[in-house]
Amino acid sequence: MKVVIIGGGPAGRAAALELSKLDQEITLIEKTHMGGTCLNEGCMMVCGLVDVARFLNDAKMFNEMGIIDIKSEFTYKKITNGVKETLNKLRHVSEKEILEAEVELIYGEGIPFEGYVEVNNQKINYDKLIIATGARSFYPPIPGAQNAITYSDILNLEEVPERLIIVGSGVIAAEFAGVFSSMDSEVHILCRSQFLNNLDPEISNYVAEKLLENVKIHRNVNVKEITQDSVVTSEGTLYGKVLMATGMVPNSEIAGDLVEKGHRGEILVNNRMETSHRKVYAAGDVVGGVGSTPIARMEGVVAARNALGISAQTDYRYIPHSISLDYDVAFLGPVNLSPDSNKNSKNVNQGDGNKMEEGREDIVTGKIPGTAGPGSFWKVLSSQTGFTQMEFDLESGSVEKLYSITPSARHNMAYISMLLRLGHETYDFDNFIESHPSTDSIYKLMRFFSKY
Questions:
Q1: What is the pLDDT of residues 354-378, one digit of tens each?
Q2: In what helix (H) or strand (E) does residue 119 lie, and over which residues does it extend?
Q3: pTM, rounded to two decimals
Q4: What are the tens digits of pLDDT across the range 401-414?
Q5: Which of 205, 147, 145 is nearest to 174 (CA)?
Q6: Strands 186-190 and 163-167
Q7: Residue 238's closest CA among 222, 252, 254?
Q8: Is the pLDDT of residue 341 over 70?
Q9: Nearest to 241, CA basis, from 171, 303, 160, 169
Q10: What integer is the mean pLDDT of 300-307?
C-alpha cells in the first residue's frame, strides 16, 4: 500500500515511523524543516531559553544571599545563535531517523488532490493520505495585529526588548513572560479576561505572584489597536515590542475541499483520525483539539494504523500538561489549555478521566507544600517551594484533578497520567516507595488519601 504523509512534525513523523514498522511504501513530504513547530519554533526553542532564564534567576538568588559574587552578563544574540545551532542538530537527527526507516523524504509544499499529491511539479499517487500540516499563530481581528511578532520571530530578535507587551493569557504568554522578565525586560501581559483561567485559581495566582512576580499582568483588558511599538488598550496605551500569544490556527488550506472542516478551519476527524474522505486521515494541530506534541504523536500513530485497516482509537483521558517556568507547572487538565486557544475540540472524545459533577459531596481537595530537594533546596528560605493539589473521589478513590508546581512536576505528572490511564486509584499508592531525595509531593497526597 502506498501511503503519503504531508507534514514532518510530530504527528507526521510518528505516522511515518509507525508505517515503516509495518513494511509499507511511505512518502513523507515536508515544506521546510523536519520536526514541525515544536522542534523549530516551539517547545524545544522554549526549553533552550528557559534553561538560560533559570540560570539567571539562580544567579540573582545566590547573589542576594551572599553565597556567590557573580555578575551575570549575556548577549541575547549569542543565546539565540546557540539555540539555532542546537535545533539544527536536532533536525538532522530527525531526518536521519526517517531515512533510516526507509521512508522517502521530499522537501517541498505538497498539495493533495483526489488520488495524488502534487509536490515540486511532480505527482505522487497514494492509496491512503495522512495530512499532518500543523498550525500557525492566530491573529485576532485587532487593527494592526500584523505589527506584532509571534513565537516564530523570537530567535530573530537582535536583543532583549526593553519592554515586552504580550497579548494573550495562556501558556505561551506565561512562558515567554518568564523568559524575558528573567532577562530584565519589563514585561506586561494583556489578558482579555483572567490569566491562565483554565487552571484552578490558586494555581494561576501562584504562577502570577511567585513565578512571574516581576511581570505586570493586566486582566480584563480590551486591545483596540497594535502599532509597531505600542498597544492601545481600554486602559490606555503601552509602548514597547508587542508579542502576539493568542493561540493557533490550523494549516488546513492546502486540503481545499478534499475533506470537511470545522468553522475555525480544523480538519474534522473522529477518534480513529478518519476524515470525511475514506482515503484521507489527519492528525496533530491541523485537527484542532489538544495542542500537544505527545498527543500529536499518538494521533499520528492512530491515523497510520487505521490507514492500514488496523483498528485503533485515540485516548484523551488524563492528559498531562506543563508550563515551563522557573519551576515546572504540571497538571492533568482539560482538552483546551488556553482561554485564547483557537482549537475546536468538539470532535475529540476526551473520556471520563477529568470530569467532575458540580457540588458533589464526595469530592475532596487536598494540598501539600513543595519539599526541599534537587532544584528547590535554597527556595526554602524564601518559602517558594511550590505546592501540589489534588481533587479525588472519596467513594471510588479516583483522581479527578491534579496540579503540581515543583522542579520535577513535568516528569512526575507523565507517570501519574500513565498509572491513572491504567486504572490505578489512590489506594494503590499505600506502599509507594519514592526515589529520595525528591521534590515530588504527589505520592504524599496519594498515600494520605489511600487510607480513606
A1: 334 445 668 899 999 999 999 999 9
A2: strand 116-119
A3: 0.91
A4: 999 999 999 999 99
A5: 205
A6: parallel
A7: 222
A8: no
A9: 160
A10: 98
Written as one letter, the residue type at 370 is G
Reference 319, options 334, 341, 297, 336; nearest CA is 334
User: Could you please report the per-residue DSSP string of 316-344?
Assistant: -TT-EEEEESSSEEEEE--S---TT----
Portion of the chain with pLDDT greater than 90, in percent:
82
**Which residues make Cβ contacts (< 8 Å) with residue 288, sequence separation at least 6?**
250, 262, 264, 266, 343, 344, 345, 347, 348
The identity of residue 179, as a single letter, is V
98-to-18, 185, 287, 312 alpha-carbon distances in Å? 11, 40, 23, 23
Please tell me which residue, 354 or 211, carries the higher pLDDT value. Answer: 211
Q: Can you give the length of the chain in residues?
A: 452
Count CB atoms within 10 A of the CB of residue 348: 21
- Retrieve residue 2's grid coordinates: 502506498
Residue with cell 483539539: 289
Among 250, 255, 298, 296, CA closest to 279: 255
DSSP 431: T
Nearest partner of 409 among 336, 337, 293, 321, judged by Cα: 321
CA–CA separation, 118 and 152 (whole Å): 27
**33, three cell numbers:** 524543516
Q: In terms of C-beta distances under 8 Å and separation of at least 24 residues, what long-range contacts does 259-263 make, across chains too? A: 259/131, 262/288, 262/344, 262/346, 262/347, 263/344
